[in-house]
Design a protein that fits this description.
mainly alpha, Alpha-lytic protease prodomain-like, Alpha-Beta Plaits, 2 domains, 8 helices, elongated
């Protein structure tokens, strides 16, 4: 099963879980009449909507490339993730509004013990589902799954906080704590929504993924081939589950086309082994220049013009420049 199919299958299960947990939270609210539990249930409505949106986006992103979408349909995941982030933020605002309004309205709470047991159960299921989503999304480079997983984990912490608040109400019988707890965790929900929207916009705008680039550079430094004189103009763009990588690889100038292509294949194999088979590489080969000798430690080179001085350590900054590296004297 390919990564797109795996992501879609996981999202189907997550959507089913979200619907089931929403119904359990509604039952808990019906039993208790707690506004904190109601706000948690309202937030679960967002989980359900977000799950359906994520399911649709993963269905679209899994479609093969076509003439209208030569890079595939993966960017739809950024859009679905942004929508989910906005919905999360709106849920936080709704919770704050409802909680503030409830402070000035007298209400009674019933059967808190049953309510606590029910939503504590939903918190455990949410956390497990969220971790599965984040792990699968990170492995398969799916922003939609990662966003959904972070949402579920944030929902877990919110629910646990509400549980603590309900226990305090049960012990102290201070009813206004119900609204205070709901407001506190609504602020956490707002923060989560903002971060998801921020990540989605960064993906749509092809913002550099610094963590991915740093990991890529570290891998290339540790496992660079002996004939890789230099590497520059490296760029990484994400398209859903696909990572698109461009770079220029400098090899000895006297290599023929087949020898140069062999080095490109070695570079491609290295990257795919480390980052998965969903990596697309477009590697341009350059022949080395006389000034390259000072940074080339190839010992069997018969065309060397100057002595080797030092190897250039690739960094996030110098590997991205569109310029062959050299030692400036």
């Amino acid at each position: 099963m390919n990564t797109a199919a795996q992501n879609f299958k996981i999202q189907k299960y997550i959507t089913f879980v979200s619907i089931s947990l929403f119904l359990i939270k509604i039952l808990a609210w019906y039993l208790t009449h707690s506004v904190a539990i109601l706000t948690d249930a309202l937030e679960s409505i967002v989980n359900v909507i977000a799950g359906l949106i994520g399911l649709y986006s993963l269905f679209i992103s899994g479609k093969p490339k076509d003439t209208d979408h030569p890079y595939g349909h993966g960017k739809v995941e950024f859009i679905s993730s942004a929508i989910e982030g906005v919905l999360i933020a709106l849920a936080g605002l709704m919770i704050i509004y409802k909680s503030v309004s409830n402070i000035f309205v007298n209400h009674t709470i019933h059967q808190l013990d049953y309510g606590i047991y029910l939503i504590l159960f939903t918190a455990i299921i949410n956390y497990v589902a969220g971790r599965i989503c984040v792990k699968a999304g990170s492995k398969n480079n799916s922003l939609a799954l990662i966003a959904g997983g972070r949402h579920l984990i944030a929902d877990t912490y919110t629910t646990l906080g509400i549980c603590i608040g309900l226990v305090l109400i049960l012990v102290t019988n201070i009813i206004w704590l119900d609204s205070a707890v709901a407001i506190l965790f609504a602020l956490i929900i707002l923060y989560t929504g903002f971060n998801i929207v921020r990540s989605s916009i960064a993906g749509i705008m092809d913002e550099a993924d610094e963590k991915l680039l740093e990991k890529m550079v570290d891998t290339l430094n540790k496992k660079r081939g002996v004939n890789w004189v230099d590497l520059h103009n490296l760029r990484i763009i994400k398209y859903g589950t696909t990572i698109h990588l461009d770079c220029h690889l400098t090899v000895p100038w006297y290599f023929n086309v087949h020898e140069a292509h062999k080095e490109i294949d070695a570079l491609s194999d290295l990257v795919r082994n480390e980052f998965g088979q969903s990596v697309e590489l477009f590697v341009h080969s350059d022949g080395c220049m006389d000034f390259s000798c000072s940074i080339c430690d190839k010992v069997d080179c018969k065309e060397r013009k100057t002595n080797f001085v030092k190897k250039i350590t690739w960094t996030m900054e110098n590997i991205s420049t569109d310029k062959k590296h050299q030692i400036i004297t």
